[in-house]
């Protein structure tokens, strides 16, 4: 298994859009990815993300609409895994991390991965910037500055890891099994 964000061969529909593209074909794959509508992106990635191991990263264009695509994908994955108690927090926080990556990183794509581990759900967003996120004080009545505060308030754990080519910002939610 490749590390998060590293290319891995896959038979999933849409896998050839970017993840498997060699460096010479990457600009063509990226152009194809950027032409997809939010609905088409969801259709391409839904089955791929719902697998129980959640090891695949999906690549989304770095555009504001990708936050809503990520929210719907995470919502669908959590529903398919029966994690109904995490629907609202998972959806909201995934959208916040994608929105931050789109707003603050200069790359053309962002990566999204959802993993379920024993007792935990982990959502990770990768981008090409090595600048670590920092919480800012939100202006009263303003729209900006609340994202990482929400992550801090709702996630059980969150953080950021520097990668050779960018960073990964993640959050984890405890899966509380009903006994």
TrEMBL record:
The keyword Zinc-finger appears for this protein: no
This protein's UniProt keywords: ATP-binding, Kinase, Nucleotide-binding, Serine/threonine-protein kinase, Transferase
GO molecular function: ATP binding; protein serine/threonine kinase activity
InterPro entries: Anti-sigma-factor_SerPK (IPR050267), HATPase_C_sf (IPR036890), HATPase_dom (IPR003594)
Region of interest (Disordered), residue spans: 1-21
Organism domain of life: Bacteria
Kinase found in the keyword field: yes
Pfam family, one: HATPase_c_2
Ranges where the Histidine kinase/HSP90-like ATPase domain occurs: 60-171
Regions that span the bilayer: none
Listed name of the protein: ATP-binding protein
Native species: Kitasatospora indigofera
